[in-house]
Every structure is written in structure tokens, then in C-alpha cells.
Amino acid sequence: MKSLNMKDAAIVGAFPFHSNGFVVLNVGCGTGRIDFHLASLGYRVFATDIEKHETWQVEMSNLTFYQSDIFDIQSFPILSAPVVICSEVLEHLKEYKTALKNLLELTEVRLIITIPFEKSFGGRRAGHCNFWGSNNIGEFVELCKPYSVTISKVRTKPEDIQMKQFCYLIVIDKR
Question: What does pTM read for this prediction?
């Protein structure tokens, strides 16, 4: 199992509570790096992505991977979870506001999102069609009213300081 990068550690740190067996839904899990880590800590993880990945073949009783589409909530294995994660996904979606609405619908307590700052980590070369920076990051607060929203910056690795790269960590609390 690979170790978590600084961004993934910040995601886990943003959990509203830590308890073995509580349910986490990860929307847009990719290869499942953070999901394997969460399952090893005892969380019950439902990990979804638009496409299947070879890494999903690992068997863990508390980790299940599903092919699901963020725009079709009925394709999800569960329709709500205390914690929902969506990391490095919204920048790829033209209709990210619809996706955000669906994420909020799936969330019982806390939604944790990461998005890259402006054109960090590849920009358009990585298939990004949305960019957030100082001028428009506040739109997440507006889109998520009446919930509590906190936005902070996190790095993925120490070298990001020299490259002026970071992600926004957006925590939306529905409690």
C-alpha cells in the first residue's frame, strides 16, 4: 500500500469523527489510493469512479469499488453516507455545479472536496475545464448555502512550494 500524500492526509484530517466501521463514500476514487488506506484504518468504504481500474481487484471486506457516474445518483451503491469525498474530480466536469448538487444530496454530515488551485498540476493538459483561484473560489460558499463551508490550501508534496502548486481543501458541513 502506498503512503498518503499531504493532500490525502488533509482529507482524512477533515473527517468530522474517527471511528472504526463508519461509512465513507468516495466519488471519483481513481485507483483507490486513499480508499485502501481508509479501509486499513477500519472504515467501511464505498469507492466509485466512472471507469474501472485494475487496482480494484484487491479484496478487503470493508472496501468495495463500483463503477458509477456522478451525474446518475441511482448508479451509486449507497444513496447517503456520513462522509463523502470527491478529490480531484470537479475540475474535469463541465457541469460541476450539477455534480456538486448530487454530492450534497449524498452527504449526511460532511462533504470533503479537493480541487487544484488555478492551473496547478497540469492545467489543461490534465483535462481540466474548470479553474479556481482567488477570484472565484468563493463561489463554493455561495453554491453550498446554507451549509458551513471552510476552504483551506493544502500541498501534495513538499516540492509544491517551489512550484507554487497546491489544492483547495473544501469542507462542507451539513450538521
Answer: 0.94
Q: What is the pLDDT of residues 16-35, one digit of tens each?
A: 988 878 999 999 999 999 99
Instruction: In whole angstroms, give the CA distance from residue 75 to residue 53.
Output: 17
Alpha carbon 42 to its chain centroid, in Å, reads: 19
Per-residue confidence (pLDDT) for residue 11, from 0 to 100: 96
Which CATH code, of 3.40.50.300, 3.90.76.10, 3.40.50.150, 3.40.1280.10, is assigned to 6-173? Answer: 3.40.50.150
Q: Is the dihedral of CA 148, 170, 108, 23 positive or negative?
A: negative
